[in-house]
Amino acid sequence: MKLETKKELFTNPLYLESGRILEPYELVYETYGEMNEDKSNVILVTHALSGSHHAAGRYDGDRKPGWWDGLIGDGKAIDTSRFFVICVNVIGSCYGSTGPMSQMYPSQERYRLKFPVITVKDMVKAQRILLSRLGVDQLHAIIGGSMGGMQALHFAIEFPSISKHTIAMAATHATRPWAIAFNKVVQEAIIKDPKFKNGNYDPEDFKDSGFTGLAVGRMAGHISYLSPESMDRKFGRAYVETDGLFELFGKFQVERYLEYNGYGFSKWFDPLSYLYITKAINIFDISRGYDSLDEALKKIKTDLHLISFKRDLLFMPEEMKEIKTVMDSQGQRDLVSYYEIDSDYGHDAFLVELDKFSDYVANVLNQ
Ligand SMILES: CC(=O)SCCNC(=O)CCNC(=O)[C@H](O)C(C)(C)COP(=O)(O)OP(=O)(O)OC[C@H]1O[C@@H](n2cnc3c(N)ncnc32)[C@H](O)[C@@H]1OP(=O)(O)O
Ligand SMILES: N[C@@H](CCO)C(=O)O
């Protein structure tokens, strides 16, 4: 599989939903496979909250491949021997596209809290502009999970003719208070951490030791990505062997797991990006700007595939099913399908249980 990382600079303003502008801005992206002559084999993959443009393949020295490597590659469900796949790091993130720690023009100071609030619709708009720059006006498919699924839904509504197929997984049409509440924990923990310094932190300060606010908040988030059943399976009631049951700070394996993943995460993810992206997720609502959800969905022309996971406790199956119900009731039955995957892993099943939906995805892409 041919893997390339690229960056594009845009000097025209990006007009944001908030009324503010981002100017200039950069987008970093990866591509896999080769674009054919008539540009008819392009698939856009959209990433989730902490994901990046590195969706597949491996660079020299990498311990792990990209986050959807099991799905994207030669002969895999998103077959890079046939398709040219693009994955773009969203604005607001911390992997190279313009985000809160980028430098403002012309002062060269970092934006920090001066960075504008961005929305999932803004992330999509920037990617549409990148596609135009690449000469791509028609996609074979758009596919993403979680916040990636939200982007796929926005693409379907805002750019109805751009893609033949749209696959939105483990997402919702509007973020519910339940999910906002988990994000509140991480946001509060970040801003109240003394190292945050009202956004004026030095990233070097937590490169080695981690950023406690982000670590603790991410633990709450991570709980919402699993389920009671997957935790039973992963850990049971196992205790860390070297810890005594009657030591106050002795740990269950599940506690060790949350510490490992929370503190590890806080060494490499930027706290301001986390604040801005969770804000974008919280205010996600595909009906904003329309009279109703029905009106927003009426714009859809693409073949829309909605996929939920049975025990997704963050974005629950009923939320995606509602999109199908509305579309069915207003004469769009032929455009929409809904598939509920029998899984008890939890929300992150879209990253882990690839064998449960690979064939489905391959079938859609073969149509
Ligand atoms: C599009 C995107 O969103 S990409 C971003 C994806 N990444 C994330 O969401 C970050 C959070 N990570 C995760 O949620 C998970 O690691 C996933 C979903 C990516 C993968 O899940 P799984 O393959 O089931 O891995 P699992 O959750 O068992 O293990 C994760 C880590 O915890 C470690 N771990 C497992 N059990 C324990 C334990 N008892 N104590 C300490 N650490 C543990 C694993 O060794 C692994 O470490 P590593 O990341 O250094 O390899
Ligand atoms: N665990 C994934 C999905 C969260 O919605 C992430 O961190 O991006």
Automatic annotation (TrEMBL):
InterPro entries: AB_hydrolase_1 (IPR000073), AB_hydrolase_fold (IPR029058), HAT_MetX-like (IPR008220). GO terms for molecular function: homoserine O-acetyltransferase activity. GO terms for biological process: homoserine metabolic process; methionine biosynthetic process. It catalyses: L-homoserine + acetyl-CoA = O-acetyl-L-homoserine + CoA. Residues 42-210 form the AB hydrolase-1 domain. The active site is at 146 (nucleophile), 312, 347. It is an enzyme of class 2 (transferase). It is found in: Cytoplasm. Substrate binds at residues 218, 348. It comes from the Bacteria. Signal peptide: none annotated. Keywords: Acyltransferase, Amino-acid biosynthesis, Cytoplasm, Methionine biosynthesis, Transferase. The keyword Cytoplasm applies. GO terms for cellular component: cytoplasm. Belongs to the AB hydrolase superfamily. MetX family. This is Homoserine O-acetyltransferase. It comes from Hydrogenimonas thermophila. The lineage of its organism: Bacteria, Pseudomonadati, Campylobacterota, Epsilonproteobacteria, Campylobacterales.
